[in-house]
């Protein structure tokens, strides 16, 4: 048994769940989703997304449905971010908007106002 398998079995037991609660296929799908979200959206979004998967499954939605929806959402977000970055590449420095105007604040300051 691997360290990961040992951990999953121990964690399941600590939560009063059967040791086989997490199949290898489901584990791999969760790890793939977590990786895709962490790399495509934001690093902290990975584990938070996995938590949301657990909430949705606990509320009765099948794991495969939850993972498929969130995988599609992450892919769409990644595609949108890539399109947004491509449209705001060379010639658009910090504080400069797509309309050519330059703001008096940095982009992260704008988001807070």
Plain-language structure description:
The chain has 113 residues and is mostly helical. The chain has a domain at 22-79. It is built from five helices and no strands. Helix 2 crosses helix 3, helix 2 runs parallel beside helix 4 (63-87) and helix 3 runs antiparallel to helix 4 (63-87). It is elongated. The model is unreliable at 89-113 (pLDDT under 50).
Attribute tags:
mainly alpha, 113 residues, disordered C terminus
Shape: elongated
Count, helices? 5
Helix/strand/pairing category: mainly alpha
If you compute it from the alpha carbons, what radius of gyration comes out, rounded to the nearest whole angstrom? 20 Å
The proportion of strand residues reads under 5%
Mean pLDDT: 81
Summary, kept brief:
With 113 residues, the chain is mostly helical. It is built from five helices and no strands.
List the helices and strands and how they pair.
Blueprint: H1 3-14, H2 24-40, H3 45-58, H4 63-87, H5 107-112
């Amino acid at each position: 048994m691997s360290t990961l398998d040992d951990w999953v079995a121990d964690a399941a037991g600590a939560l009063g769940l059967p040791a086989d609660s997490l199949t290898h296929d489901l584990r791999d799908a969760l790890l793939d989703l977590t990786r895709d979200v962490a790399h495509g959206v934001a690093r902290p979004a990975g584990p938070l997304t996995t938590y949301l998967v657990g909430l949705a499954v606990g509320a009765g939605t099948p794991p495969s449905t939850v993972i498929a929806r969130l995988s599609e959402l992450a892919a769409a977000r990644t595609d949108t971010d890539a399109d947004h970055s491509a449209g705001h590449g060379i010639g658009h420095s910090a504080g400069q908007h797509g309309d050519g105007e330059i703001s008096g604040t940095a982009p992260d300051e704008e988001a807070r106002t």
